[in-house]
């Protein structure tokens, strides 16, 4: 029996990323710390961009870069003030969304470790 070649396939492909990002943004939508940062009234564009990015990052379709170019996440987050409170709020919603998927533990840990390090790398304010 062969193992899926990518995390994208191992976790269930596009359906899984859609669920993850939908649940994550359902949390963001009501978060008093995070919601004001999102420039658009409708979060569907942001949801789509995060989903495409994560699918690509984990070995799925490269639609993100076809539409948006190089990710340059630090640069793209520069307009938003991201301190420890924003980082931790973001990670809290992502953790709940990830847990809701009930993935095998090694996959959940792989994804979670990445989210933690990516979120820390995007902090651009001290408080
Ligand atoms: C975009 C906030 C962490 C990936 C955005 C936007 C905001 C934001 C306000 C603009 C929404 C939009 O696209 O219209 C934050 C905050 C974070 C955080 C407060 C806390 C640390 C992350 C992490 C990742 C990520 C850890 C990746 C794992 C993205 C992507 C976009 C985005 C892919 C769209 C970039 C583009 O193509 O324009 N984020 N973010 N963000 N964020 Fe984050």
From TrEMBL:
PROSITE patterns from the UniProt entry: GLOBIN_FAM_2
Chain sites annotated for binding heme: 120
Superkingdom of origin: Bacteria
Keywords in alphabetical order: Heme, Iron, Metal-binding, Transport
Record GO terms (molecular function): heme binding; metal ion binding; oxygen binding; oxygen carrier activity
Cofactor(s) required, per the database record: heme
SUPFAM superfamilies: Globin-like (SSF46458)
PANTHER family (UniProt xref): TWO-ON-TWO HEMOGLOBIN-3
Family classification: Belongs to the truncated hemoglobin family. Group II subfamily.
Name of the protein this chain belongs to: Globin
